[in-house]
């Protein structure tokens, strides 16, 4: 088990989740997240990957459940186990300039925090992705 791999796992996991390969029920999950973030007026939409039930509905909730099922396989490929991760979340928010940004966050059992900004996306009409800092 390598705790140093938690940052890359968190980044890869979040990047895949918000990518345009995440297409469910005739729609892109990231478009739903961006729409929800815009409606949340600057407050981050937070997906806590370690919670039991996601506080979302529809396509987002369905996708979260599917990605949680894939998590053990992805953890194994990064040579880490879930019991060494204390917190794991994806945050989506709208910046004051109306651009949508995504952050991957993880915390290991020793209290070390890992943050990764996700910014490489396929163009999406009315949605632009940029970095943000916490």
Main attributes of the structure:
134 residues, alpha+beta, 5-stranded mixed sheet, two-stranded antiparallel sheet, 3 helices, 7 strands, globular, disordered C terminus
Task: Write up this protein.
- The protein is an alpha+beta fold.
- 33% of the residues lie in helices and 26% in strands.
- The protein has 3 helices and 7 strands.
- Strands 3, 4, 5, 6 and 7 form a 5-stranded mixed beta sheet that branches.
- The longest helix is centred in the middle third of the chain and has 20 residues, at 58-77.
- The chain is globular and about 40 Å long.
Topology of this structure?
Blueprint: H1 6-18, E1 23-24, E2 27-28, H2 29-39, E3 45-48, H3 58-77, E4 85-94, E5 100-108, E6 113-118, E7 129-130
Parallel strand pairs: 5-7
Antiparallel strand pairs: 1-2, 3-4, 4-5, 5-6
Can you tell me the residue ranges where pLDDT is under 50 for at least 5 consecutive residues?
Answer: 120-134
CA(first)-CA(last) distance: 28 Å
- What is the overall shape? globular
Compute the number of helices: 3
How confident is the prediction overall: mean pLDDT? 85
What percent of residues are in strands? 25-35%
How would you sum up the major sheet?
5 strands, mixed
Series of H and E elements: HEEHEHEEEE
**Secondary structure category:** alpha+beta
Give the % helix.
25-40%
Radius of gyration: 14 Å
User: How many strands in all?
Assistant: 7
């Amino acid at each position: 088990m390598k705790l140093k791999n938690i940052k890359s796992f968190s980044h890869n996991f979040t990047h895949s989740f918000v990518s345009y390969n995440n297409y469910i029920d005739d729609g892109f999950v990231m478009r739903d997240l961006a729409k929800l973030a815009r409606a949340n007026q600057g407050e981050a939409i937070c997906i806590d990957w370690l919670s039991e039930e996601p506080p979302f509905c529809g396509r987002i909730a369905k996708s979260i459940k599917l990605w949680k099922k894939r998590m053990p396989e992805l953890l194994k490929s990064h040579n880490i186990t879930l019991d060494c991760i204390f917190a794991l979340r994806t945050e989506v928010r709208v910046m004051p300039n109306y651009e949508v940004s995504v952050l991957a966050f993880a915390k290991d059992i020793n209290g070390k925090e890992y943050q990764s900004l996700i910014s490489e996306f396929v163009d999406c009409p009315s949605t632009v992705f940029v970095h943000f800092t916490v």
